[in-house]
Amino acid sequence: MAVDIQSMEDIHNVSFVQCDIDSDHDLLNEKLSGRKFDVVLSDMAPKSCGHRQVDHANIINLCELARDIALEYLNPNGSFVTKLLHGEYEQEFKRSIMPHFSVVSYFKPKSSRKDSSEIYLVALKFKG
Known about the structure:
Layout: E1 2-4, E2 16-18, H1 25-32, E3 37-42, H2 52-73, E4 74-85, H3 90-97, E5 101-107, E6 118-126
Parallel strand pairs: 1-2, 3-4
Antiparallel strand pairs: 4-6, 5-6
């Protein structure tokens, strides 16, 4: 299942829900109700305002939304991956994930610029 605020082309065997996960809670819960997933992957990013601390706080808010979805809809032993930016709330967010997963680490794709603060938090083996 894919969820995005923007429309996307159909993908074979993929259900798509177009909504804003920050404001369309009822629609999202209706579409996800009764379902469980092996992976929750969030590549969400807010529009950048150019102020590093504000951009960091905004992406952490999206990470928290994705985390909440993962905690509700992941199968036991499932995985959660989310994009975030290095910053003030990074470790606090990681600590909020750690009790729920056996393995929590960071990953920086080779395609990411070296000076970019963009990283991914990878959480494996959801404890359910």
